[in-house]
Amino acid sequence: MSYYHDKKMEKIFNALKQPKNLEDLQLSDSFVKGLILKIISSYGTVKTSTINELTGIHWDILESTLSQLEKSGFCAPVSGGFLFSSVEYTITKKGREKVKGIVEENPYIGIAPVPYEEYFQIMKLQIHHRYPLEIPSEVVEDTFKDVVGVEYAKEALIESCIIGKGIFVYGPPGTGKTFIVSTMPGLLPPLVIPKYIEFGGKVIQLYDSDFHKECDEQPNDPRWVKIYAPFVLTGAELSLNKLETNYNPNKGVYETSPLIKANGGILLIDDLGRQRDDHELILNRLIVPMENKEDVVYVRGIPVVLQTHFIPAFSTNLDISIMDEAHLRRAPLHIFLKNPEIEEVAEVFRRNLNNLGESYEPEAMERFMKVYQPTKEGGEGLQPSFAHSRDLAQICQSVRINRKKDTIDTEVMEASLDKHVLIVLQRMNIDIAQISHKSRSFRIKTDDLEKTYHELSHYGASSLSYENNSILVDMDESTSPVELANYLTDKGIKVEKIDLIAESEKELRRTLLNW
């Protein structure tokens, strides 16, 4: 027995034997017949071995069901040998008519689903007494083998997984927030989930290969799959609609939300505060699934409860105040990721070059580190960032190949540094995270144009110009006419009128091209 396949998992495996009759399969006779007929109809002519592979239904059930369908005139054998697995079936005219009605009601074709009651029972057995965990030291070591430094962060992640409580990760861009949270599932034990669930004749999809990684050991029943603890990542694209389970009429299944797919693992809401929908609404939508470990899916208007035993993780490069107390209670552990040390960034850079199979001269690595060394020590004084390490390694490889060199030298390094946009922006002292996406243009009418021009130049104006007896000024989108009026009045300037004349997208294009 091991951490990833313990006595409880073995007990579940023993329980999940492939059903050999309809009673044990716990699906209606009409559902099974409809599923098989849809497959035969879609193929035209198909081997029973293909039907078995597609549905995961035992040979005994298939042979009995196909025999009944044949007697009813819905399908007919057309070829095959002595073995039932080699027999081919084709759809009849009567069968095609029958399939039309079935498809209109339920177009799903695929693996036979697991009945809802069995799903809930197996999930309850796995989640019950899951926490606190005792995570072996070798599991911890293997999980963090690619993480450089940040021992305080690793400790918090381990403790989050031990007790199954949420975690809030914040800090400047490029400190590795997303990466370090992505390692957390390695600390959690795996679980067994059904690929699909049947409820009221409808099919709910649970398994998603984008988020669920299969283990080597698999149950005898192919309708179930053993997966490593999932890691479900959602970022700025997350919306309230994507947190719901929606029906896909083309596939004939209810496609579950990230909340349900993350069951047993980690759900990371990345870049919190940058979603299109208000982040407060998104956080409020998460409260009940986080608190009750369940979410409700509506199938034909009937509420169906599904498990959401995930550990919530939130990351942002904004201030911690983006989450209020009610939300922080669901993620009581926190990590503030500080900017990394120069040697840590250099080590990640070395690892990325090694992973790419790139060799480099010692002088090239010295040049890389000089980017972050203080100016008083002859360096450029830029802020170290793990994000630079990954991207710059790939740029170095590209530049080396393009210049037909065998190794990365100082010339390749210098050219690569000039091509990395974030390094260029830092060299220009531009923090892109602080740049508003829009600017506002105001027309300020006043008798004291010179003083107004002077004071606005110290108030963060990005552009100033004269227009008759007015000043035209471009400001950050957050600036209001009232704020401008109050500021100028405090400076002893009489303002007759302020008009908001335009809002436009800001651009760095000219700045970068002229640098």
Number of strands: 21
Shape: elongated
- Helix-and-strand structural type: alpha/beta
Q: Percentage of helical residues? A: 25-40%
State the separation between the terminal residues, measured CA to CA.
62 Å
- The largest beta-sheet arranges its strands as 4-7-8-12-11
- Name the beta content range: 15-25%
Radius of gyration, taken over Cα atoms and rounded to an integer in Å: 31 Å
Instruction: Give the biggest sheet.
Output: 5 strands, mixed
> Which runs of at least 5 residues are low in confidence (pLDDT < 50)?
none
Mean pLDDT across every amino acid position: 90
List the helices and strands and how they pair.
Elements: H1 7-15, H2 22-25, H3 29-43, E1 45-47, H4 48-55, H5 59-71, E2 75-79, E3 88-91, H6 93-105, E4 114-115, H7 116-127, H8 137-143, H9 151-163, E5 167-170, H10 177-182, E6 191-194, E7 196-199, E8 202-205, E9 224-227, E10 231-234, E11 246-248, E12 253-255, H11 258-261, E13 266-269, H12 279-292, E14 294-299, E15 302-307, E16 311-316, H13 325-328, E17 333-336, H14 342-355, H15 362-370, H16 386-402, H17 410-419, H18 421-427, E18 438-446, H19 449-457, E19 463-467, E20 470-476, H20 481-490, E21 495-505, H21 509-514
Parallel strand pairs: 4-7, 5-16, 5-17, 8-12, 10-13, 13-16
Antiparallel strand pairs: 1-3, 2-3, 6-9, 7-8, 11-12, 14-15, 18-20, 18-21, 19-20
